[in-house]
Design a protein that fits this description.
Helices cover 24% and strands 28% of the residues. It has one domain: Clavaminate synthase-like (Double-stranded beta-helix). It is globular, with a radius of gyration of 18 Å. The protein is built from seven helices and 19 strands. It binds succinic acid. Succinic acid binds next to strand 17 and strand 18.
Amino acid sequence: MPDIRALHPHFAAEAVGYDLSEDLDGAAFAALRDAFERHSVLVIRDQDITPAEHVRFSRRLGPLEIHVMRQFTLPDHPEVLRVSNEREEGRPVGLADAGRYWHSDLSYLAEPSLGSGLLARRLPSQGGDTLFASQHLAYDNLPESLRQRLHGLWAEHSYPYRADIQSARSGRPPLSDAQRAAVPPVIHPVVRRHDATGRPALFVNEGFTTRILDLPDAESRELLDILFAVATDDAVTYRHAWRPGDLVLWDNRAVQHLATPYPEGETRIMHRTTVKGSTPLAA
Ligand code: SIN
């Protein structure tokens, strides 16, 4: 009997008894979508599915993005990003260092991702957990005076900013000129209103947010550092220890996430679909 069970006192749940190799009927899909929106992170257990089935299920949440680093997508399914340290003929075929910093997927687009679906295909013997932080809880935990200060503020998000850091830090291939031109900086409200639930959420992240507009540099840096700390505090965090076949759906409007390291020499293969979103509404 399909079931949804909480994994954390405030958000994150697991769904058992669903088989996404089948095209779910309307009621089963509605139960999963409802759980995804209510819990922000939904771990759908035991999925032995093909990339085509992963794409078919993800598409029911909305149209899918194709990552700007297209060389790291599956050749037959460009909607699937390979988050992995696999190499073929000596060359990396996945983004090995994806998500090694707190972020909300694609917050660097004018229409950031609504949600992502990451499938565990091969896991290391230890490590490689993913941390999720509720940005609703983070907002709720702010002192009232700081909340008031944030409303009306806007921040810049940039993919080239992060890509350059990762190239220097972990040897990630640099963006081509065409890739860089495809992702110009964008601005978003510092606090956004979730378009399905109406709840306010912090919407800045250390991965892609570069500055808060209309503040002197030092003040912008200081405020961002305060917000990044509150946004990723243990009090608002769920740590996911992966099992093979876990398909984790997360709501990029409501959480940010961080991939943790695993032993050198071991292989971790994850496949990610990323659902298109809409322009964030200021809260
Ligand atoms: C990502 O940020 O999409 C990757 C997360 C992970 O590999 O755990």
